[in-house]
Amino acid sequence: MPDGAVVLIGGFMGVGTPERMIDALVARGVKNLTVVANDAAMPGKGIGKLVSAGAVSRAIMSHIGLNPEIQQKMIAGEIEVELVPQGTLVERIRAAGVGLGAVVTATGIGTPVEEGKQVIEIDGKRYLVEKPIHGDYALIAAQQADYAGNLLYSLTAHNFNPIMALAGRTVIVEPEMIVPIGVIPPDAVKTPGVLVDHMLARAA
């Protein structure tokens, strides 16, 4: 992964986050990343490790409240933070994945979220036009992957992972285990293998 990449990272407060891949990015010393994620986790956990390592120059997230380090870096001008309402963030990522040109939402009208954005009126009601968020890479976590890359998620680890698999140009999954084809029931597959480019099994 080069410096300056736009990276979608799955997880929710550290749950369902590809920790091994994050550790690898920190070890490589990658810089100037734009990180798109639900939140900044906490210092020493998940995305918080990238923040501490100085790898992040821009963050697009719905919440940074549990990570005082990113708050301090934002205030100091070291990291640019775009705060996006959670539902809007999901829809912007999904829009990129399914080829939509934009999504419209009333969330954020009349607040600082509206600043600098196109506003349209439909049936007398004002809406923001929110642009899709594409990623150069999507780093996601799964409970199981088979040899074809089909993915099964467990419980709350579903969170942002399946939607980010749609919107990353290169998708890398960190499964807890890799299993033979056929072990995952077809109706349990949430991300089909055609979307997955690489797999890195989570260390035991």
TrEMBL record:
Transmembrane segments: none annotated. InterPro entries: 3-oxoacid_CoA-transf_A (IPR012792), CoA_trans_fam_I (IPR004165), CoA_transf_BS (IPR004163), NagB/RpiA_transferase-like (IPR037171). Belongs to the 3-oxoacid CoA-transferase subunit A family. SMART domains: CoA_trans (SM00882). GO terms for molecular function: CoA-transferase activity. This is Acetyl-CoA--acetoacetyl-CoA transferase subunit alpha. Keywords: Transferase. The lineage of its organism: Bacteria, Pseudomonadati, Pseudomonadota, Alphaproteobacteria, Hyphomicrobiales. Pfam families: CoA_trans (PF01144). It comes from the Bacteria.
